[in-house]
Amino acid sequence: MMKRRAKILLLTGLILLALGAALARRIHTWGRPVPVAYQLVTVTPAHPDGDRSWTYLRRADGHRTIATDSNGDGTVDAVLTENNEPTSFLPPAADDPQARWLVVCLDGVPYQEMLALWEEGYLREFFRPVPLIAPFPSESEIALTEVFQSGPVPGYEHRYFDRTKNKLAGGMLLTFSEQNIPYLDLLDYDMGGIFKGMAYILPRKSYRADLGRLRKRFLASQEKIYLAHIASTDSLYHILPREEMRRLLIEVDSLLRELYFDAGGRLRITLFSNHGNSLIESHRVPLREYLEENGWRLANRLEQENDVVVPRYGLVGFMAVYTAAGQAEKLAPVLAQLHGVDFVLSRSEGGVAIQSRRGHAQFSWNQDATAYRYQPLTGDPLALATILTQLRDEGKADAEGWVSDANLFAATQDHFYPDPGHRLRQWATNHVRNPSDLGVSLQPGYTHGSGFFQLMVDMLSTHGSLDRQQSLGFAMSTDGPWQGALRSGDLLPRNLVELKAAANGDQKTEMAD
Description:
Mean pLDDT: 91
Radius of gyration: 26 Å
Structural class: alpha+beta
Low-confidence stretches: 21-29, 508-513
CATH class of the largest domain: Alpha Beta
Largest sheet: 9 strands, mixed
CATH architecture of the largest domain: 3-Layer(aba) Sandwich
CATH topology of the largest domain: Alkaline Phosphatase, subunit A
Helix content: 25-40%
Distance between the termini: 69 Å
Number of domains: 2
Strand order of the largest sheet: 13-14-16-22-17-18-19-20-21
């Protein structure tokens, strides 16, 4: 009997040891870099006539592939193989019915970071990146809803306040289940919810696994229009130094080149990020203590007149504030004085009220949002007075201060608060099923969110605010250059869903034939 028990224990131990070894091997091999398919071997410098070329060694067979820029715009015009083999190709036109279209979001990559990489010579199959202006708040859920023009999400983050039930809802369960998030239904690839938390524990492996899954699933897919979201890049920006992030982004360059070259002229690619990142270390605003000092109570429900609900999930530069009926107007000037707050938004008739320590202003729009008016009441909280004076001097603002949407957009693309009129209107009217009473934009270097998360990580960067650094993602394409900044809602065709359905229908017809 003892010998039998010893054998069972020994067998059990061996099984557990084998399982442990298998798990350790799986963790070790999981998340390795996607192998480089085309290794850069030479770069021919620009000649006086503007020519430039990049020569790559295709590792699978040792053949050389040469990408050329014949007109000096920095972008590849043709891809040639040695001896001008049949695989040589020109970039496909945007209306090429044979070409697939790959749309990839690199979540949270700032415009200036991608521009720096392009100027260093990476991603030259694409035209020069332009700024892509995120909605406000500059959060992933809001921005992706706008880019893909999908139905509204429940809240500004996965943890949100449910107005109808008067309680906090969502959280990790929503992240894992991915239910009730309409834009996710449009995506052909997204990191599974269960993996999103892993990006903070095993960041590099999670990122590389994310790229590897995208590659595998895109190559296995028959979708003519393929929509993908690399969520891990945003997580990595929160916790890794920007210098390391630049090195990791080079792996995207390698992956997309493989897909582009191997498609042999039958692939278009649009690459973008949905918002930027502050790229500075951020610290928590002392919200709870401050509210209590001023006679308010941070709560999970609105039961008393002085109750305030502010959902906490990640660590972001924005606060969605919910109050009892009639209390938002009282709370706004109080929050505007909180250390770390940039300004506070509240809805007013025909627009929004803006309060900060720099002053108080009103932003209004007409019925069809074709014109805006900014009225500083005290001070100039959005620092727009100089721009508005210039617009009036140029005859682009009427006597009452109304400016067309197009003129205001053009004048504020490079402002500290890019495109403020359109974006503040978005906050007041769009994107979420449970809109907040107040919107608080924090100063760079400050965050609000999960206390547990704050203990877990040092936030080296964040996003959510209206300021330029956190608001500007990027957009670039193999199709052609964009002129100037874009709004998120203008990146993709308005009828994207219909185009995707039609393309897939054509694909099925071709397969049947």
